[in-house]
Amino acid sequence: MKSNTLSFLLHLAIANLAVSTKSHQHDHNVYRNEIEAADRNAVLGLDPNSQHQQAISPPAARQSCGTTVAEAMERNCTFDPLTVQWLPQTCLRAGADEFSAQEHWQYWRDQAGQQEITDLSQHTGPGDEHWYWTTGREHLTHCVYMLLRVAKVGQGEGKMDGMSGDYNHSVHCAMNLLDAARSWDLFDVIQTQGQVRFGSC
Q: pTM here?
């Protein structure tokens, strides 16, 4: 397909996005709590002992990082800046380095940006005081690399963490990117070429 690259489009869209409002506040903690309560990441597979080859393999045992930084470190978990989670080392970290290299991302305790958080990995715990604020630019860049991580796992390149594997989070990111892209000055310009293909699955 002959078109401007996806990264160029997203770069322009992100550049035009204003600082996120409370309605766009990161909901990482919400997703994390939901995912802790339910196993959404069971792996579907074929049972080689099944006559019909249609059985579902049992879910792989999930590794937990606990509920505190101390517990996470005791379990050899490490902090993933892309998902803002402490994760087992077996979880794929695709996109984390690229995300961190984009900018020096900043986070605050307040929407006014007066109380900066110097170490986000330690900003944990229940209650509103442990929410954080960040910019729309960070939010959309997070979404870009989250969707790329999902694609990496789809290629069989690693084990997916619960947030990355949550379909609702992918919808959230995709729709925010689409909304931002609508402000692109070439959004309605005829400038993309493609062709019908014959695929497989």
A: 0.67
